[in-house]
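Continuing the batch. This is chain 6 of the set; chains 1 through 5 are on the previous pages. Same settings as before, nothing changed between runs. Recording input and output for traceability.
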Amino acid sequence: MFDSTSDAPNNSNGATGQLLILTRFVWPYGGRRVFLTGTFTRWVDHIAMSPMEGCPSVFQVTRSLAPGHHQYKFFVDGEWRHDEQKPFVSGNYGVVNIIFLGRELESSPTICSRETTNRSYMEVDSDPFVQLNAVPKLSEHDIEISRHRISAFLSTHTAYELLPESGKVIVLDVNLPVKQAFHILYEQGISMAPLWDVFKGRFVGVLSASDFILILQELGHHGSNLTEEELETHTISAWKDGKVYLTGQCDGISRPSPRGFVHAGPYDSLRDIALKILQYNVATVPIIHSSSPDGSCPQLLHLATLSGILKCICRYFRHSSSSLPILQQPISSLPLCTWVPKIGESGARPFAMLRPNASLGAALSLLVQAEVSSIPIVDDNDSLLDIYSRSDITALAKDRAYAQIRLDETSINQALQLGQDASSPYGCFGGGQRCHMCLRSDPLHKVIERLANPGVRRLVVVEAGSKRVEGIVSLSDVFRFLVG
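Output for chain 6:
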């Protein structure tokens, strides 16, 4: 992947000088150390590539190259790689990418602004869709056509589209002690697991990070019947039976309650699965198949998520983006995001943000009350520092940290440090991939491509440069817009 601009084609006395074209190479597929080499280095020198700020899985480097044909490859973590999304051929050095830089480059007026100057550090350039230079505003009719095409695709494709060629799913016995389950999720690096009841011979539910939020709140509640010692013997089944008393009429809000275990079969449509996730406000729907008419001997095939379904959409429309002009529209022009209310604005949806010195108890309460998967952590200027997610709860199992903290006396920053090995005070800009961001000017296809990555449920919309938080766009937001 590359971008090109001409670099001083003529000298001051009118004679034709050496024409060099500033070319930006991008490796958008992650890695720890990435190098670029090619014909322009005589296949000898390795040019180190640097990760983009805010997008640590995307590496870039610029070089001034002469016009003509060039071949290049990437050296990623000790292995030779090429970008399959760009033109490539088989040559003397194996499969290589190729580019042609012409002498005459088309130019167009560029408006320099603070946003356009900094935007390259915020965007991911791994576009599977065609990007247009000028994006006309779509009519409501055109938007509905695009939505209908996506909905039709989801209605005619089944859960089989989601099944990987290989993989593993962690399943917990419902009679396992809660404390042991907490540690298993942490050790396996997951935030949820299906539950199996050996006596009933079927799956009966899912243990998630939300359960551990309620457990931590119950442990920290004065007069609670549940103590840290009781977690040694308190089973998941017993916890699930008592959970209804903690969540029954929370805040007086009426919420749809699933009748039994929410799951789907392999022949259910992707649209029906997405609607189940939205209706019951769950992060995953297990895909279960049984060859017996009575439903006995069920097999767990996969854990369906909105990000997996979104990846199917990206893959299906990868080479037919012209049929979905909505993908080129900036997210600010679509009814997608939850925006930070402006001063004096009334009737806006509430927006949850916290300072790093806010208490862990406040963060847990906000996650439950706002029914969100993560909360931006910001400084006094509302610039993004980090996020606190539901999945961060399981990190408190490390060294039994949950037994050593008091929710109202432990800050969010301290809680994050308990589960991190990094020395940086904030995980977002310390080299990790905790914070996933976008700009309000980003087209929809960029947003859904990032949300299609496993584990990414929300993108924080930030101002370029200052990283001041402007809004949030989530997987649920995208699907409610596309199929709602």
